[in-house]
Structure formats: structure tokens, C-alpha cells
Amino acid sequence: MSQEHQVAEEHAEAEVHTGHPTPLTYFKVAITLSVLTALEFGLFYLEWLSYGIIPVMGFLSAAKFLLVAMFYMHLRYDNVGISIFGRDVPIFSLMFVAGLIVAAGVVFALMALFAFFTGGA
Amino acid sequence: MLKSAVILNKLAGVVLLGILTALLTGCTTIINPQNPQSTFDTLGPVAENQLFIFWVIFFAGLVVFIFVEAALLYMVFKFKRREGDGDPAQTHGNTRLEIAWTIAPVIVLVVAAVPTVQGIFYADAGRYISANYQAAADEGRFLEVDVIGHQWWFEFRYPHPTNAGEQIAVANEMYVPVGEPVVFLLDSVDVIHSFWVPKLAGKVDMIPNNDNMMWFEAYVPGEYFGQCAEFCGVSHANMRFKVVAVARDEFDRWLLHQANPAAEPSDPLAAQGKKLFRDAGCSGCHADSNSVIKLRDDGSRIPGRTGPILNHVATRLNHLGMFRNSDVDFEDASGRRLYINSQGMPADVTTGRSFINESMLQANLKEWITDPESLKPGNLMARDGEPYIDPANELTEVEIDALVAYLMTLK
Amino acid sequence: MAQATAHHGEHEPTTTGLNHRKMLMWAFLGSDCMFFGTLIATYLVYKNRSITGPLPEDVFSIPVTTVSTFVLLMSSMSMVLAYAALTRNSMKTFRIWLASTCILGATFVGFQVYEFTTFANYEHKVYCADVGVKELTPLKQQLAEKCGTEDEHNGVVEEVVGLTPRTNLFGSTFYTLTGFHGAHVTLGIVWLLSLFFLSFKKGMVTPEKNLDLDLAPLYWHFVDIVWIVIFTVVYLFGVFPGF
Amino acid sequence: MTTMAFPIPRPTHPTGIWNWITTIDHKKIGVLYGVTAFILFLTGGIEALLMRIQLAGPNQDIVSAEIFNQLFTMHGTTMIFLAIMPLSAAFFNFVIPLQIGARDVAFPRLNAFSYWTFLAGAIILKISWFTGGATNAGWFGYAPLTSVQQNPGTGIDYWIVSLQVLGIASLAASFNFLVTIINMRAPGMSFMRLPLFTWMTFITNILIVLAFPVITVALIELYFDRSFGMNFFNVARGGDPVLWQHLFWVFGHPEVYILILPAMGIVSEILPTFSKKPLFGYPAIVLAGAIIAFMGWMVWSHHMFTVGLGPIPVTVFTITTMAIAVPTGIKVFNWMGTMWGGSMDFKTPMLYAIGFVAMFTIGGISGVMHSMASSDAQQQDTYFIVAHIHYVLFGGAIFAIFAGIYYWFPKITGRMYSETLGKINFWITMVGFNLAFFPQHFLGLDGMPRRIYTYDASMGWNLWNGVSTAGVIILAIGILIFMHNIVKSWRKGELAGGDPWDGRTLEWSIPSPPPEYNFAEIPTVYDRDDWWARKRREVRRGVPVAGGSGEDEHHDIHLPQPSYWPLVVAIGLFIGGIGLVYPVGMYAISMVGVFIGTVAVYAWSFEPVNDPEEGEQAAH
Ligand code: HEA
Ligand code: HEA
Ligand code: CUA
Ligand SMILES: [Cu+2]
Asked: How far apart (Å, rounded) are the C-alpha atoms in residues D23 and D18?
């Protein structure tokens, strides 16, 4: 366990350096998440929004998504860069966002291929 | 390095070079356009267009191929390490060169892409129809055929020339009028098949519930080989069919003939066969006297029976689309095999009759009815047909003869 | 060179200074995005293609699912608070938050079980007095046709048309997608419970050894994120006509 | 810190079979991967041989239609999942830690787990030959031919389960190598100094991590359809068989780059070494690899040009596919730039590497011919495609793998292979290969569909089928010579020394075979091709070239200890998987597997990681 022990220690240290969030931050985020969910719920029943509901809901859920990823999953904090082609790439973000982008691309491409947007079939 | 290895090295290099050049220069004769499914003998506009695009990329590819392989060979001889050589100059790259060999392929590909995209749209049936429908409709000819894939045979349904709301069904052998575009609506009742007549057009898959379409036109009268191109189970290899292109008036007569039931058998053996056809359970899967099928009220198709329609089975040039019922070696002036040599065939030939060799037909039918499994492994007739799975109902020699005699009357 | 010494100085056992297992976890999460992405793609491609009902608008209850969504979001909060407590070495607070995370997670799964069973035994009811006043889903319109016939009892037509994975494409895709999400949550609960019990064993879960408490939360929050997407795409949009 | 009391002591078998079973040494696991995968390659080859014999002449009846369909399905699945992927994995295992200057991979036990799980998956697939018929719907298993109605036997289920188990193995290995490459590089080994093989491995593993979940989901859906009567691909209930095709190829196309990128990496190591020149345009080659991997996600529907997607999607996929020729061309031309002006030594690995460039180019060009949807309409599902896949897979991947085996053979075994036999093997393989597969282009253009168990004599395909079969027999002889060479040299080849090729990368700086701890001292890297540069520096300074000769052993190096648990988890997966094929008694067999697996996972995670921490502290 020693190696990991050491890493953990280094790590805790690192988090102090980078100003790791306090429970208060976590709590604030939770409040925001709840408010956003409540908002989604409320907006859902506004019928005059019509198709406007899609971008609005999409935006709200993206906001929730980002909040959890940034704060709870600490992507804002411990995300060391490695240098590839002279650029600093934050490695954790890279790993996660690569999956996210490819997944989103595949989902949208398949929806287009199956005429989801053009209302076919 | 060992001496023998050096010699071997050289020798093998030369041999290989020889083989490669032989293969390349021989290309045109190696691929014989007279082969029944050759893609180089294009006899319709779609296949022609597709072959043109093939040549475009083939020659582009050939240039790349020669460049790469020649450069490799050159380097192999030129930059061979010799005794006492030191380190060569250590080059790490050359930006100009690298940009050049990035851009060169881009240009080649852009040039090749233009006709390709045109070709894609040209072959697309939907667009083709909307562009040409009016003209064709004005002339009163625009044929749309339903093609339905079954494991492992093809069903074709033509619109009835006179009765709206009715279709004429045939199996394994289809006729089309020469010089006219024909549109095919592709469907399947079980798994995915693919409709392919290499000399007329590339393939399009037949997928259940997918409403695929394609079109082609035959320039010359003749008989064209077709083949299912998507793996569809045990007898995929044997899922073949024929397209027979004839002049328009012959086509019309053929179609009307198919719509009518064959004459009642007069011969007693055949009459017995007819009865047997019902008693032995053949009629459970086959229609023998009626090719006309009504459409539903909403215009959709009523599924046929499990087996091919046998009305007029004795007029088919091929049995099951693959075994010849005819010994006429269709040849045109240039010696091209397997085309009906016809500047307008004699009138009674429109039904294919005069080409049929009765004894071949009889032998084929008999062989099939006796043991379908051996000709087409896994086929549903052998798998599910009463006479073949229940030894108690096995057909006797006499019964088979009767059935064959009956089928022979379905002209 | 740069990154070899980049972060934590000479003693760092890894090139980047990041922990191996944490990095593996992130790679796994990237991969899991593809897993759920494919399930969601299947769901969306098949949306509106079911041949028979029931459809989302028949079975979904947005208020119920909003509550369960809220529960899962809160479990994320208690998870991160447990983590924070551990780093501050207050074991007791840590255990309280960890246990509440498990409970909230279990509640979410409970909601899902409830949802699944109600869907599977769904009873469609049409009050014949409402017909024409209220917009009805296609399935209910079908039922409404029975108004005025023998099937009508006291002004109500009802019929049990459960939604199972076999019923239609919606059933297959919906249960598979949400089922796999539920399985992820369940696995997370097992993991967290293991940590919970381990924390009573001396030296097993300590602020210095908080590593597992770095990984489990990541997993847990990811599952939460996935649900955020599912809630919007499957539930909210699902009931929205025309999507 | 207290060392946990753990009931079962860790295995300590210095030698013998148990040593191999419990090993977590990346080099031994690499050898296990290699040997296993090569045997599986032979089984796939024998399947191919049977097919070729059946097709040697028209209307032959050597195998039945049913068997033939199983043969090509098993052949494709075997070659792709059980031969090339694990052969590449063998190189990942053996070479990567050595190239980046590490003592092992990041997760040695996970590594052992990957191997055993791969073996479990392979066994599951192969035993289906003996359990009532193997899978028979083609390696891409198009629905609805895989439905229970069409395919009631267990063959498809074995195939599904096997691919799932293999997927777990691949994913575990890929996570492991991603972390290893990012996190275990020696000091100074920046990304732009990574050896190219390591780079391509890195990219390949990203592809695996992203592509496998897609096939996992597709297979789950298929399994649910078959076992629980769900509707995903059930046409009668509105399901669309085309969705299966999309999901399969969303995975399938990245998969073919998973097969070729490691091969390109191997070749990028060998060409510079035997030309005595650095790789030409290193950044361009790296970037091209990354672009190929990225664009690989945008082209999948080129396998579906005849499906009837409509002209607009077909146009889009045509253009993206054609575009892939550009980055690939960059690689080919840069390899040629590497050789240009070099001092080329035609050792067997070099011959195979040049052969790779020559043959892969042919396969690539035929690939571009399919990419143009119009001409693909005539080629799709014909032997023209079969020719393409074998030029890229055999002429590409397998050639490179042979090159790699010869290249690293001295490092792996410490002995030299026979150069004469190697050359004979190369030329026979080269001739046999071209004879076997070049004529298939002609067959395809002459309209011979693939996946047919027989054809008629009148079709004009007799000659080239005969030639093709003859070529395969020559090819088989070449492979036998290869095996002979390897086995003989392994046992009594000349001793090779640490650096027989005047190598460029770090693995050549240590003795052959490498000691268990790899590097007595973790090297510090100052250059791309650091070992080569170091040698040249030292020569210039008049220091005798060190390294490659073995050094002192008494370093206080603590290595991870062997473990039973990875194997036990894999056994759990094996039993669980078989249980999914036979869902008797509410999956009772699967439950046993799950139980074994769960117990083993817990045991694994409580097992003390390795040496007591004092030692570790001292080492720093
Ligand atoms: C290692 C595996 C591998 C690799 C690397 C490739 C590489 C490519 N493949 Fe291939 N492919 C397969 C494995 C592979 N393929 C398999 C297994 C199948 C069949 C699956 C099945 O149906 O069973 C298949 C099928 C397949 C199809 C479907 C055919 C069909 O079924 O109808 C297509 C269509 O576009 C295609 C295209 C390409 C292209 C454009 C490339 C390109 O990446 C090639 C690029 C390379 C070059 C072009 C050569 C070098 C470049 C230059 C020298 C530059 C200059 C070149 C030009 C300007 C042309 N492949
Ligand atoms: C890595 C991939 C790979 C490799 C290396 C090969 C190698 C070979 N393949 Fe491959 N092939 C595929 C991948 C591969 N194939 C795929 C993906 C398909 C599509 C499958 C599908 O349609 O679903 C396919 C399909 C395919 C077909 C088409 C089948 C059909 O459509 O009907 C054919 C036919 O000729 C064929 C032949 C061969 C041959 C002759 C070899 C030879 O190169 C094999 C050489 C090896 C040997 C000859 C073995 C040597 C063995 C010995 C010498 C015996 C030693 C014995 C003991 C020790 C006991 N293959
Ligand atoms: Cu029908 Cu192949
Ligand atoms: Cu592809």
C-alpha cells in the first residue's frame, strides 16, 4: 500500500495548494442543482414554451452536468496537464471529454441517419 | 550475412517482380468480361457509370501503386548497406516534402470524388424516378417491379397491365423490356438479401421493412445472371436468379401469358400429378395455376405462399434460377456467351418455349422433387415439406413422375 | 522532461504526479460514456417507432421521477461531504454521510423498482366524461372508443396494458437503458457499503488512505451525471409531444 | 502502517507451471499472450485452409454448406479477436514498459487478469465447435440472421458471450496500458520522445476504450432479443436490422484501425533501426496516427453503402472515407523518407517491414476503391473485399507482427533466430500470400460473391480459385518454416546479447532476456531514440558503449508479487459466461460464476499489494 499511501499524501497536499473546495461550496452546488431540477419540473408544465422546451431543458441539464463534473468530480481542481505537441492537455478532462464527445457524436449521427430530425419513419 | 541468404534474397526479389508485372499486364485478359457475372461487361447505364468510376480510381490507384512500389524497389537496391558503411546522414524530416505528399493525394482524391458523387446520385432510384418519371410515363412505359427475397429464392411481382390493384407474380426468372429503365422495389420476408445483376447494376440490399429501391436498364436483349449478394443463411450460395431482357412487345406478351393459368393437363399421368399436387401437400406452399395476386385496399402487398409460384414453371429457361432448362448456347455476333441472340425473337418464343429442352427440364424437375436437399442444402421445401420429413408420406417413383408430368404442362 | 518533475517534485512515483488508479477511473468513465451513449442512441433511434402502446406519455409520471432525480442529486452531495469529512479526519461525520449516501442511493433504486412495477402493471383509465375535453394519448383514444359500449363501467373504461421489455420497442429500450443505470447505482451502493464497513476496521479507511474514497465518489457522481441526461432526454422529452 | 492479515499467502513459485499461472510479470504475460494467440492464429488458419480446399474447384463437396458457414464466421472472428488483437497485446506487454523505462505496467495483477480473461473468451468461442455447432452468421453477425427464429442453436450465444468476455479482457488491458504510458514514463521521456510503437499503442488503446462499449451494448441487445424475447432487432415488432449494422460498424471500423495501428508502430521501429536513420517526420507520423484514429469514427457506414441509406449519407461517408487515405499516405511516404538515403540492412524483420509497406499500400488502394460508393456497389460482398481485407490484415497486420516477432525475438529469448530460415520464410510467405490473395481481386471483379460455399463451373472462377488455394498451401509451408525457426532458435539459437541490432530505444539498453526488474537503474531520457543517441554520444566521448551486457543485480528492487486472484476472477467469468449460454434454472451456473468472481475480486483487493513499505521507502 505504500506507494499509494504516498501518492495520497502528496495528493492531499496538492489539494491544499490548489484551494480545494470546502463543504460549503459543495452545499451551494447542491442547492443550485436542486433549484435547477425544480426549474426543469416547473418549466415542463408551461405549454406555451412548445418546442422551446428542448433547448431550455437541454441547457439546464447541461448546467447540472457541468456542476457535478466540475465540483463534485473535482475536474476543476486536480487535473494535471501533460504536454503533447507542445500543448498542455489536462489529462483527466481529456479522458472524460473524449468519451463524451465521441458518444455525443455517435448519438447525433445515428439520430440523423435514422431520420429522427427530419421526422421520417 | 550468409552467402546463400544473399542469393536467395536476390532470386526471390526477381521472381516476385516477375509475378507482379505478369499479373498487372495480364489484367485485361485475366478478368474475362465474358464471364457471366463480370463487372467489366456493362450492358446498362448504371453498371456503365459504376465501371467508369472504377476506372477513375483504378488508374489513380495504379499511379500510386507504381510510385510506391517502384520507389521501394529502387531504394532496396540503391540504399543497401555495404561492408564498412558508417551512419548515413541523419535527416529528421523535410517540411516542404511532407506538405507536398500530403497535398498530392488530396488533389487526386478530390478529382476522383466528383464523378463518384455524381454517380451516387445517378444510381439513386428515388431521384432517377422524379427526374424521368414524366417522360417515361408519357410514353406509357415505366415499369416498377416488386422484388421480394425469400430464403433462398426471388419473387418478382409485376403490376397487372390491365387490372389495377392486381399483381402478377413470378419466381426466380424475371423479364424486362430492353432499353427502358425499370425500377425495383426491394423487400424481404425473412433476413437480409441483396439484389445484384452485375452486368446491369451494382447491388442494393433487400431488408425487411426498409423500402429500398433501385433501377437499371438493359441495353441489349439477353439473359443476365443475378445473385443474392448478402449472406442469408445456409443456401446463400445457391440463391441465384436470371433477368431476361426482351423487346417491349415481347415483354408485354410474356407478361400477359404469365397472368393466365396454364392449360388443363390432358395427359392422364399429368392429371394424376395435378391431383397429387394437392394431396401430397405441394399446394400448401405453391400456387400452381394462378399468378395473379390482388393488392390490399390500401395498396399494400399480400404475402404469397412459402414456395415459388409454379404457374408456367415449364417456361423458365432455368430451374431455380440456376440449373439450365435449355441447351441453346445463346451467343451474339461477337461470341459473347449467354445472351439471347435476338433481333426480335419469333413470336412463340416470347414465352421462352422454343428454347426449352424438354428432357433437360424434365430431368431437372425430377431431380429436384426427388431430393431437394442435395441441390440446395437447407432449403425450406426439404426442411418443412411433408413428403420430405415424414417417411410415411415419401413420394414413390411413380408419384414423382406424375408430378413432373404435371409440372411440365405448366406452360 | 517538463512533466517528469512537473507537479510534486522529485519523489513522485508517477510521471504526471497523478495516481494510477484515479487515472484508470477516469479512463473507465470515458469508456462508460460510450456505453451509455450507445444505449441512449438506441432509445432515441427507436423513439416513436413502437407499433403498439404503451408509450412514454402513457406511463411516465414526471413528478415521481423528479423526486427520485432529486434524491440521486442529494446523494451526490452527501457523497462529496463524506469525502470532505474524511480528508478532515472526522471519521464520525464521514460515516454518517457515507451511510446517508447509501440510503439515498437505495431510495433511488427503490423508486426505480416502484416505477418498473407500476409500468409493468399499468392500468389505463379513460373517464368517458373527459373525452373531447382533454387531449388523450393514442392509446387512450383507442380505449375511449369503447365509451358507450359494454366495456364501460360507471363512466370509466379501463384496461391493463402493462409495459414490459417485450411489449414494444419503447419497453425494450427503456428498460435496458434505465436498467443498466440502476445496475450501476446498485454496484455503487455495494462499493460504498464495503467502504463503510471497512472504515470500522482500524487503518483501513483513513485520511491518508482516502484513495478508495477518491474513486468511489467519482463513480458515484458519474452515475448521477448519466441520470441527469436520462431524466431530460428520456423522461422530460419523452412526454413532450413531437420529440 | 499495519500489514493486513490475509488468510491466503501470495504464491511464490520461482519456476515451473505455477510460476506461469500466477505470474504478473509483464514480460511473461507478453509471452503467454504471444504463444496463445499464435496457436489461435493457427486454428484460424486451419479453418481458412479448409475453406480454400472446398473452394479450390467448382461444385466441390468437401465440407457441407452448414460447416462452411461456420468456418468463415469462426475464421473471421478468430483472426480478428483471437489472433491479431492478442498478438498486438503480446507486444504491448513485452515492449511498452521496456520502451518507456518502467519496471512493469501500472497494474500488474490487472494485466494477468486480462490475459486469463482473454483465454477464457477464446476457449468459450472455440468450444462452440463441439457443443452443437459454432456461430454461422458471419463475423459481423447481421440481424435478423442471428435471431432465435433463424438461428435456434447455441452457436450465436457462444459467440455473443465470447465477444463480451474478450471485450472485458481488452478493456482491462487498455485501461492498464493507457495509465502505464501516461504515468510510468522514465524521467525525461516526454510525449514527443515516446518511441513510435508506444505512441501507436497509446492511440490504439484509446480506440479500444471507446469502441468496445459500443459492441458490448449491441451484443447485450442481441442477447436480450434472443433470450428474453425483446424487440431490438425484431422486424415484426418494428425493430430495424439496420440498427445492428450501424452499431456493429461504429465499433467495427475503429476496430480495423485497432488492428493496424500497432502494426504501423512496429514498422516505425524497425525501418529506422535497419536503415540507421531516425524516423522521417516523427511528428507527422504521430499526428497522422491520431488523425486516422479520430477520423476512424466518421466513416463506419462505408460498410453499408448498399444498405439504402440514401444518397446524402452515402456521399458524406464516401468523402470521409476517401479522406483517410491522406493521413495514411503521410505515414507511407514518411516511411519511405526514412529509408531514403539510409544504410539498409535486410535482416528478416526489415524484409517483413518493407513487405508491410508494399502490401499494405495495395490493400489501402483497394480500400479507397471501395470507399467510392459507386464502384463499391459492384464490389461490396464480393471477393474483391476479401482481397482487400487480407491485404490489410495479412499483408498489413500479420506481416508487421512477423516483423515484430523476429525483431524482438532476441530480446524476448536472449537468442538469435536463424537468419537463413527467416529469409526463406519471408520469401515463401510473400509469394504464397500474393498468390493466394491477389487473384481474389479478379474473382471479385468477375462477380464472385463472398461467403459462398460453392460455385458453378460455368462462372469462369475456376482458375483463380485454384491459384488462390495453391497460394495458401505455399503460405502454410511458409508458416511451418516460421514455426520451425522460432521453436528451434528458442531452444538452441546463438546467444544474442543485449543490443544485436544497434537499436534505438530503451529496450536495447538492457540485457537479453531482460532481468525481472527490467532496469537496474531507471534511465533518464534526454533524446528521442535515447539509446541510439546515448551510444553515439559515448562513442564520441570515447567511452566504451555500455549497456546491453547485463549489470549488477544486487539492487534493492521490489517487484510486485505473483497472485492467484486474477486467474480466479477469470475462471468466474468463464463459468458465468457459459451459464449465459445455458440459462437453466434461473441462470444457476452463472450465479456460481458470479459468486466465484465476487469472492475473488474481494480477495484481490484485500491482498496486500506487495512488499512491506519500509523497503519501498528505502528504495527512494
Ligand atoms: C487492418 C485493417 C483495415 C485497414 C487498415 C483498412 C483500411 C481501409 N479500408 Fe478497409 N476493411 C477491413 C479492414 C481494414 N481496412 C475489413 C476487415 C473489411 C471487411 C469487413 C467485412 O465486411 O467483413 C474492410 C472493408 C472496407 C470497406 C467496405 C467494403 C464493403 O464491404 O463494401 C471499405 C469501404 O470503403 C473499406 C475502406 C478502407 C479504406 C479507405 C481504408 C484506408 O484506411 C486505407 C488507406 C491507405 C492507403 C490509401 C494506402 C497508402 C496511401 C498512400 C500511398 C497515399 C496515396 C493514396 C491515394 C491517393 C489513393 N474497407
Ligand atoms: C487477421 C485476419 C485474417 C487473416 C490473417 C486471414 C488469413 C486467411 N484468410 Fe481470411 N478472413 C478474415 C480475416 C483474416 N483472414 C476475415 C475478417 C474474413 C471475413 C469473415 C466473414 O466473412 O465473416 C475472412 C474471410 C476469408 C475468406 C472468405 C470466406 C468467404 O467469404 O466465403 C477466405 C477465402 O479464401 C479467407 C482465406 C484466408 C486464408 C487462406 C488465410 C491465410 O492467410 C491463413 C494462413 C494460415 C494458415 C494456412 C495456417 C497455417 C497452419 C499450418 C501450417 C498448420 C499447422 C498445423 C498444426 C501445428 C496442427 N478468409
Ligand atoms: Cu439471399 Cu444471400
Ligand atoms: Cu471500415
From this structure: 8
